[in-house]
Design goal:
Shape: globular
Bound molecules: iron/sulfur cluster
Mean pLDDT: 90
Number of strands: 10
Helix content: 25-40%
Strand content: 5-15%
CATH class: Alpha Beta
Number of domains: 1
Radius of gyration: 18 Å
Distance between the termini: 46 Å
Length: about 300
């Protein structure tokens, strides 16, 4: 792996912010919570924790699938569900002072409802404890079962996010137990069941996809009602995971996000270190920097913004 990091281009080299993450770590420990930030070895966790934010990971930390890019532990049987997890997530979110809460999970093909009821309870627990809070969920595919997607949406999340992760041609290598058309169907079904809910998806680039494939995937996501898209660079967690085929330069992220925005997405968040819930609140609200450059060359393209304002 050392040789792999030596190959890192300049734009991927960065120093960690000085600010402390102690408080966030302490609160997550106090409420015995998992985060995808740590389980998936997210490169932004230090920055986000230092800003008192994190993406809560429910349904245990063992996934019943084994995607080629993912650092999360996997087994055919997941962990025993803890009934008080929804309340613990809500208390932690409140103590962190979050106004925008992102909840994700491992995939639980071993549960009858694949965790749908636990998702709904967690969303409700957060809404009940934090008035005016916005909730984004990043869900598994629930095998595109309409009854399960409806059960989750009954809890009225503000954003329903489900990642396609990569283009159709690479699905089998990248996420062998998932399915491209099934995932598109999940997003389409969510939008049909609850048109008011914003739908979102994400791709990791650098796996060998072509620009034409990314744009075609974008077109299919738009046709499925998706309005927010994230594009990030795949970074190999260990030598047991699939290889990086390309380190995508910042200008390519910028070009892709401009073309995808012109195709119809209301927001495209693109950049090497962009992950599904990175700057999720800004991406949703469009508040603050609705159009601009963040650290690391991250671009938020937003339709209809007067660039000369
Ligand atoms: S389904 Fe999600 S958590 Fe499970 S291995 Fe794939 S990416 Fe990781």
């Amino acid at each position: 792996m050392a040789q792999y990091y030596r190959r890192f281009p300049d734009w991927l080299r960065r120093s960690l912010p000085e600010s402390s993450t102690v408080r966030t770590h302490a609160i997550l420990k106090k409420y015995q919570l998992n985060t995808v930030c740590r389980s998936a070895m997210c490169p932004n966790s230090h920055e986000c924790f230092a800003e008192d934010t994190a993406t809560f990971m429910i349904l245990g930390k063992v996934c019943t699938r084994h995607c080629g890019f993912c650092a999360i532990a996997s087994n055919s049987q997941g962990e025993v569900l803890r009934a008080d997890e929804p309340e613990r997530v809500a208390f932690a979110a409140k103590e962190l002072g979050l106004k925008y809460v992102v909840i994700t999970s491992v995939t639980r093909d071993d549960l009858e409802d694949e965790g749908a009821a636990h998702y709904a309870r967690t969303i409700r627990a957060v809404q009940n404890l934090i008035p005016g809070v916005k909730v984004e969920i990043l869900t598994p595919d629930f095998h595109a079962r309409e009854d399960l997607i409806a059960r989750v949406l009954e809890a009225e999340p503000d954003v329903f996010n489900h990642n396609l992760e990569t283009v159709e041609r690479l699905q089998r290598v990248v996420r062998p137990q998932a399915d491209y058309l099934r995932s598109l169907n999940v997003l389409k079904t969510a939008k049909r069941i609850e048109p008011k809910c914003v739908t979102k998806s994400g791709l990791i680039l650098g796996l060998g996809e072509t620009e034409a494939e990314v744009l075609e995937t974008g077109r299919q996501l738009l046709a499925s009602g998706v309005s927010i898209l994230t594009l990030g660079q795949y970074l190999r967690p260990t030598s047991n995971h699939i290889e990086v085929k390309e380190f995508v330069p910042p200008r390519k992220f910028e070009e892709l996000s401009k073309r995808l925005e012109a195709m119809g997405f209301s927001r495209v968040i693109a950049g090497a270190y962009v992950r599904s819930s990175y700057h999720a609140a800004e991406a949703f609200a469009g508040g603050g920097r609705v159009h601009g450059k963040y650290a690391d060359g991250i671009v938020i393209e937003e339709k209809g913004v007067d660039r000369n304002a």
